[in-house]
From TrEMBL:
Keywords from the named record: Disulfide bond, Repeat
Keyword Zinc set for record: no
PANTHER family from the UniProt entry: NEUROPILIN AND TOLLOID-LIKE, ISOFORM B (PTHR24251:SF28), OVOCHYMASE-RELATED (PTHR24251)
Lineage of the organism: Eukaryota, Metazoa, Ecdysozoa, Arthropoda, Chelicerata
The keyword Zinc is assigned to this record: no
Taxonomic source organism: Limulus polyphemus
Name of protein: Neuropilin and tolloid-like protein 2
Stored InterPro entries: CUB_dom, Sperma_CUB_dom_sf
Residues annotated as domain CUB: 36-151
Length: 166
């Protein structure tokens, strides 16, 4: 079987560590952390993340933050699969996925997404993306599944590779 991989036994240990690191970044406790886990941490092995409780409806009053950082020399691309459905509202003021082009909540806004139209592929200009999932106090949908990948910066500057020499 080509491509088959065993899941390492220490995965749970790593997940526990991730949760611990993650908890220290969050202001609210308990259920909130549990709900945000699949967004903030997601599945790093598959390079996926999800709205809280996906594929079930996301909870009300969620505020989850995620940052994706590619290695040096790479940019981040995020693509949505299977589902995208957040409560629609003007300017996505009720429920939203907010994406910023950098590592911070004040980095340049790429977009705020809601409704049921899939966003187009999101691409960072540097190696970081900052994201926030928010829901208000009523009306929930299933949210989304997102996949991300790291692409070398060179592939954007030079679409056709002419050779390996530098
Ligand atoms: Ca809502």
């Amino acid at each position: 079987m080509v491509g088959y991989q065993n899941i390492p036994a220490d995965e749970n240990t790593q997940a526990t560590k991730d949760i611990h690191d993650f908890q220290s970044d969050q202001l609210n406790g308990g259920d909130h952390i549990q709900a945000c886990y699949n967004f903030t941490i997601g599945n790093e092995k598959l390079m996926e993340f999800y709205s809280p409780y996906y594929p079930n409806k996301y909870p009300n009053n969620s505020h989850c933050i995620k940052q994706i950082s590619a290695p040096y020399g790479y940019i981040v691309q995020v693509d949505f699969r299977d589902q995208f459905h957040l409560e629609e509202s003007p300017n996505c003021d009720y429920d939203s996925l907010e994406v910023r082009n950098g590592p911070y909540g004040y980095s340049d806004l790429i977009g705020r997404y809601c409704g049921s139209d899939f966003p187009s592929i999101i691409t960072s200009s540097g190696r970081h993306l900052w994201m926030k999932f928010s829901s208000d106090d009523s009306i929930e949908y299933t949210g989304f599944r997102a996949v991300y990948k790291f692409s070398p910066v060179e592939s954007f500057n030079r679409p056709e590779k002419e050779g390996l020499h530098k």
